[in-house]
Structure formats: C-alpha cells, structure tokens
Design brief:
The complex is a heterodimer of chains A (236) and B (322). Chain A is mainly α and 236 residues long. Chain A folds into two domains: 51 residues, no CATH class; 177 residues, no CATH class. Chain A starts with a helix and ends with a helix. With 322 residues, chain B is mainly alpha-helical. Chain B has 14 helices and two strands, in the order αααααββααααααααα. In chain B, α10 runs antiparallel to α11 and α11 runs antiparallel to α12. Chain B folds into three domains: 111 residues, no CATH class; 70 residues, no CATH class; 126 residues. In chain B, strands 1-2 form a two-stranded antiparallel ribbon. Chain B is 72% helix and 1% strand. Classes of the chains: A mainly alpha (236), B mainly alpha (322). Chains A and B meet through α1, α2, α3, α4 and α5 of A and α1, α2, α3, α4 and α5 of B.
Chain lengths: 236, 322
C-alpha cells in the first residue's frame, strides 16, 4: 500500500501548484524507492523513460516552419479567410473542426491534425476571428476561453474518433492484452464497432456545447460591456 | 529505409542549435539556465538512440533528466527577446501573400496523409521505404521538413536561421511544458514497476459487491476513469482494471459481450484523459502552445463533456453489453 504515497505526491504537488516537472520527478523517485528499486535503478528508469517516449515530443519538428509562417502573417491570413464566411460563428466553425478531426481519426489519420500543426496556426485564430467579427475586440478572458475550446475540439475529436479505426494503439492494446492473457480471439473489428455509439454521443455532446458557446460569448461580452459603461459613467 | 531515429536526431540537433542561440541572447535574464535546459534536452534526444538499443547506459541520461527537472522547477529558465515581425508587418505580409500562406501549412497534413495511406505500403528492393510501426512519426517528420522547404521557396527566405529563430521563440514560450509528457511517461513506467497498479486494482475489488450487475459496470467504468486521472493514460489503467473487474466479474460472472465491455471500458478511460493534467501532451502542451495564462483552460473546457460521456459509456454498457 505504501507505494501509493507516490500518487499522493502527485495529487498534493498539483493541488499546491508546484512546478509539474519537479512534482513528477519527485513522485517518480519516491515511488521507485518505496517500490524497492535502488537509486541507480531509479536513475536508469528516468533515462529509459525519456528515451522511450520521445515520440510525444516529435511535434517540435513542426515549430520552425510554423514559426516562420506566423512571422509572415499565417494567423492574420487565417483570420482574413474566416471573415469571408459570414455565417460561420465560433461555435459552428469549431463544430465543423470537431467533425473533421473525428472523421480523420476514424479513418486512421490521427497525425494530420494536432495542437501544433493545426490548432495554433489555423483553428484557434479562425475561431477567435469569427468571435471578433460579431463582438469586436475580445477581452483577455474571453480570448482564453475561445482558444481553450479550440484545443478541446481537437482532443474530443481525436479521442472518440480513433477507436473507430481498427489499427489504432488502444484497440491493439485491448486485443493484445486479452488474447494473450485469457487465450481468446477477440476481433479488432468488433471492438471498433462498439466504439461507434460513444463516438456519436461525443459529437452530439461536444458539438452541442460548442454551439452553445456562441450564446455564452454573447452574454459574457454584453455583461462585460455593460460593466465597463457603468464604470465609465461612475468615473464621470 | 527512412528511420524514425533520423527525425529524433533532427529534433535533437535543432534543440542544440536553439540552445546556442538562447545562451547568446542577452535579452534573456536567465539565458544560461534556458540554454542549459534545452541543450540537455537536445543532447538527450540524440543519446537516447543508443539507450533504446541498449548500447549505452541509461543512468547518465536519467541524471540529465533530473537536472532538467531541477533547472525548470527552480525557475532557472526564461524567455529571450523574440526576433520577429510587428503586427503591422504581419498584416501587410498576409495581404501581399494571401492564401498562398496556407500552402506550406497544409503541406504537413497532406504529406502525413500520403505517408499513412500510400507510402506506407511502398517498398524498394523488398525493403519498405518507411520504418514499420513508425509511420505516423515519419509522416509528421517528413511533412514538416517538406513544408519548411516549400515555405522557404515560397517566401524567398534564404537564411535557415530565420525559421530556427522563430522555432526557438515558440520553444521558449512553451518552456518546460514541452518536456512534461515525457516525464509523465517515465512516471507511468515507475508506477508499473513498483506495483501501484496492483494496489489500485485491489482497492477496486474491495469495494465491489459481487451480486449487482449495474454496480459492477459502474465500478469498472469509474475505476477506468479514476485510474486514468492518476496515471494520465488509459493504456496504463486498462490491464489493471480489466484484470480486477472487467474480465472476472463482467465477462466471467455476468457473461457480458467481451468486445462491448472492453471497448466501452477503454472509452471510459478516455473521459479521464480529457480532464487530467497528467495527460500533459493533450491538456497542458496545447495550453502552452496557445499561450494561455490558465494552463488548465483546455481541461475546464472539456470537463462537462467528459462527465456526460462517462455517463453515456456506463449506460451503453449496462443496457447493451449483457
């Protein structure tokens, strides 16, 4: 039971807002030592962990080209483009993105979209520009909210799309684990079929929330505007 | 054969070059700490190639990783002066170049798609063109390199230092968050080796009454959800919860449809991934990339969706899997 102290370190560290990198390092050391690893083994575990997980940082390879394009106005052009589609509100645009992301993931194209390659340079500025067209310049908090929802559309689309594809990691993990552990012959196709109902629910639920974001923004910006007028009047 | 390691070296090399730029940037009050951090990450990326093939010891790399955590954790890293364009220049440049700016940006997804669909199946002289099992990494890597070439031609930009400087600015803006996913992957491995999974599985079995199907379904799904919150990854939770509850109780005792129970259990875990800072690559890295002040912004946006979908998974399993 004592190894669960490592989990406690993580929870406390995040709750007290310490630097996450440090929290995770300490939790790893604590858990490793309590779990009976000697200090050298713990060091080796950190080394092996870093070496074996480099694929999650591979998106850094896109940063130079994205940075270069942003220097030449990519985000500005993304904003200009969305401005031509008058009917495309923030919510409608992000719902469209959610759908595309989900379909892409469902046919196995998980890396075609992503936070570095599509959300930062394209989807987030487009969502912001759609809101700005209706409401004018966005206050900082509202801008953060729109960007957060752009990131959420990417994640929800990916998570609940990829399992519909047969050869994705999670499906292979399920079949690999139960077929070797319990000696069954589970077909990836059946697992993928059972992922469809949740995929439909995910699009309906998150799409509905994205569409409601439009009304939410409207209300939030109206109150913000009303507040600034009252303070302006009070100051007079 | 095009290998994934080549692209890890390319990333490592660009981190090293960026680290050199950081050290010489006098606009950054913490230029040495910042440069040391990214220099170590870059060198680690290259050294790792020998660690994964067991031709070099992992311990020195582990020590370097802990130094990185200390540098970042005690605030020794910072941001330099971005060498970039003003908003006015960007607007003017966007007006001049128009939609041509999208061509390089869309080259990345287009090449990634081509690799996933076509090039994957190609082979020359019996040897596959792309290293097998690494097609997604290769698609992204080849796409990024191709996009950079297209962008430099299109923009008539001759100096390679310009994209590297732009990339460095983005790297400094993201800071330590970039490294968190790899650190968490390590923690996951240590948790597994130390038997944290088994303990959580025991807890789940202890609270499980044997006679109620609906309670068992809820325990399996909520267990996947909660375990994923802690581990940051549904893949780590799945074997433990399935061995404790999913297989023996739901499939063995209540005769559930295995495909339905296991697929929905995994998806219940994904709901946990949506709301945990431990899944840093999905939740914290995007917040850093989008330069949000609130690093939990994406999690807050996802929280209600995750809750509703967890309920959906439990309902679908309870109604249709038995």
């Amino acid at each position: 039971m004592i190894v669960l102290l490592g989990v406690l370190v993580v929870v406390l560290g995040f709750a007290t807002k310490r630097n996450p990198l440090l929290v995770v390092a300490v939790a790893g050391i604590v858990t490793g030592l309590l779990g009976g690893l000697d200090p050298v083994k713990v060091l080796a575990a950190f080394g092996d962990g870093f070496a074996g997980s480099r694929s999650v940082t591979i998106f850094a390879i896109t940063l130079p080209v994205i940075g270069l394009l942003e220097r030449y106005g990519l985000q500005e052009q993304a904003r200009a483009l969305i401005a031509r589609f008058g009917k495309l509100t923030t919510g409608r645009f992000l719902t469209l993105y959610l759908g595309l992301r989900q379909i892409g993931a469902a046919v196995g194209l998980t890396n075609v979209f992503g936070p570095a390659q599509t959300v930062r340079p394209l989807a987030a500025p487009m969502a912001e520009a759609a809101a700005e067209r209706r409401h004018g310049r966005l206050p900082g908090r509202t801008r953060e909210k729109v960007r957060s929802f752009a990131a959420s559309a990417d994640n929800v689309g990916l998570f609940f799309g990829e399992d519909v594809f047969l050869a994705v990691g999670s499906i292979l993990l399920i079949t690999g684990f139960v077929n070797t552990t319990y000696g069954t012959h589970l077909e990836p196709l059946h697992l993928a079929l059972w992922a469809i109902p949740t995929a439909v629910c995910a699009f309906a639920v998150h799409g509905w929330r994205l569409l409601r974001l439009d009304r939410h923004l409207e209300r939030e910006l109206l109150t913000a505007a009303a507040q600034s007028t009252t303070t302006a009047e009070a100051n007079r | 054969m095009i290998k994934a390691e080549w692209f890890y070296w390319l990333v490592g090399l660009s981190f090293l070059v960026m680290a050199a730029q950081m050290v010489t940037d006098r606009g950054n009050p913490k230029r040495f700490g910042t440069g040391a951090f990214w220099g170590l990450v870059g060198a680690g990326f290259i050294y790792s190639s020998w660690v994964v093939t067991k031709r070099a010891p992992a311990e020195p790399l582990g020590a370097a990783v802990l130094v990185m955590a200390v540098l970042a954790g005690f605030g020794c890293t910072g941001r330099g002066t971005p060498r970039t364009t003003t908003p006015q220049e960007r607007t003017a440049s966007a007006a001049r170049l128009g939609n041509r700016l999208f061509i390089p940006a869309l080259t990345i997804p287009a090449v990634a798609m081509a690799c996933a669909l076509g090039v994957k199946h190609l082979s020359i002289g019996g040897e596959p063109v792309l290293q097998q099992g690494s097609e997604t990494i290769l698609g992204l890597g080849i796409g990024a390199v191709a996009a950079l070439a297209v962008a430099m031609l299109l923009l008539r930009e001759k100096r390679l230092s310009v994209p590297v400087q732009s990339g460095r600015t983005m790297l400094e803006a993201m800071g330590w968050a970039m490294l968190l996913p790899q650190m968490l992957a390590t923690l996951g491995t240590i948790f597994q080796v130390s038997g944290v999974g088994g303990q959580v599985g025991k807890l789940a079995t202890a609270v499980l009454p044997k006679d109620s199907l609906y309670v068992a379904v809820a325990v399996y799904c909520l267990g996947m959800f909660a375990f994923t919150l802690v581990m940051g990854n549904a893949f780590a939770a799945f074997p433990v919860m399935t061995a404790a509850v999913g297989w023996p109780v739901l499939i063995g005792h209540f005769h559930g449809n295995p495909a339905a129970v296991l697929a929905l259990g995994m998806l219940a875990g994904f709901c946990g991934t949506l709301v945990t800072p431990m899944a840093a690559n999905f939740n914290i890295v995007p917040a850093a990339l989008l330069e949000l002040k609130d690093q939990y912004g994406p999690i807050k946006a996802q929280l209600p969706t995750a809750g509703i979908l967890l309920g959906c998974n439990i309902l679908i399993m309870a109604l249709f899997a038995f």
